[in-house]
Design goal:
Structural class of chain A: alpha/beta
Shape of chain A: elongated
Mean pLDDT of chain B: 85
Radius of gyration of chain B: 23 Å
Number of helices of chain A: 17
Number of helices of chain B: 10
Low-confidence stretches of chain A: none
Helix content of chain A: 55-70%
Helix content of chain B: 25-40%
Strand content of chain B: 25-35%
Structural class of chain B: alpha/beta
Oligomer: heterodimer
Mean pLDDT of chain A: 82
Number of strands of chain B: 14
Distance between the termini of chain B: 40 Å
């Protein structure tokens, strides 16, 4: 153990004082959180230019009520209620005459950027809709009711914005035929918001009922997601250099000298411990930084301190598991190019669960989320995410997950050590997958 | 007392038998030369002694006990494929290797060896800023701190200038005087002849020579003539009883067949050209090596 600790200390000290590690600490949050930061910045700096929308109304009665509903919506959403500052784009409408080539003329105006888009309302929009067609083909055969033409991309928030005033306008036309008083008309057209609320609970000390609180949806998304993002980032910062470092040391013929003093298993263990040290260093750096920032924003209350022991447990398991594989793969490589090609194999167990975060968040206790979070390479991020969500997980699942991860890690280290032992002195052509498997099985 | 004992050791890599039923004893306190052509099994044998490879069959004892991972600290090892942490400074690097082997602080020894090899001024320089010769001396120091009981050096003189080579030779002999056993693998036959107490040669994984230089040469007898003739090779063709003629530049080396009389050879040469020197000697280690592992021997072995 003395030799392992000595080699681990050397590897740790030499790696944390490199520019790559220090830069990695700074760059990783930008890399992983950059997308969300961009969205946040864009939300704070919305496009405030007017959006000109034309209405081509074949009913002859819908354009005016739709424009009225849109103006009302504009009035509600255009300005911040406390600061009075404009926070959204203003929608400016015009009704156009219904001529034979009106659609083409309006399309040309969109192309020349005079218009943002135009709405076309057909008479069927004011008729009782037929029964919901069973297939897409049957739906295509139905007469058109309303459409929105634009040059915008598939994810267009304008169309989503317009859906409400168009429907309100059409409902207003239909309701006007009933000659109802204005107050009833207003009540009929009003949208009732569905408030997100937490569960009602009883205070265990006083026995009093605790009222449900209004949930902060951003906070409920940000806290678990941030925790998993942090785990993924730290694991990547700690393990990513391992593959190339082992290959580099192999190319510089350092291992033979070391193998005269320590066993391959000791050598690999030292490497893994050094990587673990690197990961824990970055974990302390990031967690301290995050707590300071949240303290400054008076949001430290959103931190789930009860999950920190699990966080560190998953971190240690994930880093040990990936670093063992990285050491084995690095030992099997003969050049930095080989290492680069194999990096994708190493990154997969980190990135695959990263892309599954949204479906897991949508149904954290569904069958798929549960099954995925019990697959050992995916357990650390996905189980942690499920634990961090308000619904929580059955008590046994994190324990089952961690047992799986530990067994998987022990198996991984055993296989990796066998590949590492043979690979580090092997020169020449890089081994094929079959050969790696033979090394792993027969040693 | 033997420093190293190999008994019936065999190591194979797939279909290739790298070392075949090798038995060997290295006397304690000796400088023991390992010679053999490339790919003959020298490095594999050394790697088994230092516990990097495990033998498929046979046993290895080092300093009286079976070799295992806990005894690596007794051995100083300078591999043929040299490698150091290039970004580390010399002093911390040597302290690291010394502490790894000895399990204790080694600052004093590091200072001593750096001074001895005229490297004290480089102590804080990074390894990648050193010349090849300097790195090689640093690597040698890494192998001898703290002083090992068994030192294994694989081609230690390669790439060294004569001054550095002399310093290294002196260091090896000093270590032997202080009780260390040195196994020296080399392709330089002159080094093996002058530095080694005993020489072992491996060819195609099998032992082909083992003994002192005198014992080895005695096996071949006085079958070599060194002669200087004015007409050189032109005068040495078809000499009676001469099997092979080798042109060494200023001197010709003639190998006599069994029962050949050197006086007959001299008499014949004098009739052909002016002879300025003539001596009957034992074959050199170089010559013995070539006889065992040269192209003719390879062909014979393949047949």
């Amino acid at each position: 153990m003395r030799k392992v600790l000595l080699m681990a200390r050397r590897d740790y000290v030499e790696s944390v004082k490199t520019k790559a590690f220090i830069l990695g600490l700074i760059v990783a949050p930008l890399l992983f959180g950059g997308g969300f930061l961009g969205i946040a910045i864009l939300k704070k700096k919305p496009d405030l230019r007017d959006k000109n929308i034309a209405i081509l109304d074949h009913t002859g009665v819908a354009a005016e009520p739709i424009m009225r509903a849109a103006r009302e919506k504009n009035g509600r959403e255009l300005f911040d209620k406390t600061t009075g500052k404009q926070i959204a784009a203003r929608y400016v409408f015009e009704a156009v005459a219904n001529t034979a080539d009106a659609s083409l003329a309006l399309s040309d105006r969109i192309r020349s950027r005079e218009l943002f888009g135009f709405i076309e309302i057909w008479p069927a929009a004011l008729e009782a809709p037929p029964d919901e067609p069973a297939t897409e083909k049957e739906r295509d055969k139905l007469p058109p009711r309303a459409g929105f033409y634009s040059n915008a991309g598939a994810i267009d928030e304008t169309r989503a914005w317009l859906r409400d005033p168009v429907n309100r306008g059409l409902h207003a036309v239909l309701l006007s035929r009933l000659h109802l008083p204005d107050t009833e008309l207003k009540a009929l057209l009003a949208t009732v918001p569905l408030e997100p609320l937490s569960l009602v609970a009883r205070d265990p000390k006083t026995g009093r009922l605790q009222e449900a609180k209004k949930k902060d949806e951003v906070q409920e998304f940000a806290a678990p997601f941030g925790l998993v993002l942090l785990l993924t980032m730290i694991v990547m910062v700690g393990t990513a250099p391992m593959l190339s470092a082992v290959t580099e040391d192999k190319n510089q013929r350092i291992f033979e000298m070391l193998l005269g003093l320590a066993t391959p298993f000791e050598l690999m263990t030292a490497r893994v411990l050094a990587a673990l040290g690197r990961s824990l260093t970055s974990a302390i750096f990031y967690i301290a930084g995050a707590l300071l920032v949240l303290q400054g924003m008076s949001m430290v209350g959103m931190v789930r301190f009860d999950l920190l022991p699990w966080f560190f447990l998953y971190l240690v398991a994930h880093v040990v598991m990936l670093c063992s594989f990285a050491a084995a793969l690095g030992a099997a490589c003969n050049s930095p190019q080989d290492a680069q090609n194999l990096a994708v194999v190493l990154v997969a167990p980190v990135m695959v669960p990263y892309f599954m975060l949204v479906p897991v968040m949508q149904s954290p206790n569904g069958g798929m989320a549960t099954a995925l979070s019990l697959i050992p390479p995916f357990t650390p991020p996905l189980m942690l995410l499920r634990q961090a969500l308000p619904a929580g997980v059955p008590w046994w699942q994190p324990w089952a997950g961690i047992v799986g991860v530990i067994l998987w890690t022990i198996g991984g280290i055993w296989v990796a050590a066998r590949i590492f032992r043979i690979g580090i002195l092997m020169q020449g052509q890089a081994p094929k997958l079959r050969e790696l498997m033979r090394w792993a099985i027969s040693g | 007392m033997y420093a190293v004992e190999l008994a019936g050791v065999t190591k194979t890599f797939g279909e290739v038998v790298a070392v075949d039923d090798l038995s060997l004893t290295v006397p304690a306190g000796s400088v023991f030369g390992f010679i053999g052509p490339n790919g003959s099994g020298k490095t594999t044998t050394i790697r088994m002694i230092v516990n990097i490879f495990y033998p498929d069959r046979g046993t290895i004892h080092v300093l009286g006990e079976p070799m295992n991972g806990h005894r690596t600290g007794l051995i100083g090892y300078l591999p043929e494929e040299r490698g150091l942490y290039r970004k580390m400074a010399v002093r911390p690097l040597l302290e690291f290797f010394g502490e790894l082997r000895g399990g204790r602080k080694v600052e004093k020894e590091v200072r001593y060896w750096l001074q001895r090899f005229d490297l004290a001024h480089c102590a804080e320089r990074r390894v990648d800023t050193l010349s090849k010769g300097m790195s090689q001396r640093v690597q040698f120091i890494a192998a001898v701190i703290p002083e090992p009981k068994l030192l294994i050096l694989d081609e230690p003189f390669t790439g060294l200038d004569p001054v550095s080579a002399d310093a290294l030779r002196d260091a090896i002999l000093d270590l032997r005087r202080r009780g260390a056993t040195v196994i020296l693998s080399t392709h330089d036959m002159a080094v093996a002849e002058t530095l080694c107490d005993q020489i072992f040669m491996i060819f195609r994984g099998r032992k082909v020579l083992d003994g002192t230089l005198a014992e080895i040469q005695a096996e071949y007898g006085n079958d070599t003539i060194r002669v200087t003739v004015e007409d050189g090779m032109a005068a040495a063709g078809d000499l009676p009883g001469v099997e092979k003629v080798r042109d060494l530049g200023q001197v010709l080396e003639l190998r006599m067949s069994h029962g050949c009389d050197p006086h007959e050879v001299l008499r014949c040469l004098v009739t052909r050209s002016r002879v300025t020197s003539f001596s009957v000697i034992k074959p050199s280690l170089h010559d013995i090596f070539v006889r065992i592992a040269g192209p003719a021997a390879e062909e014979a072995a393949d047949a």
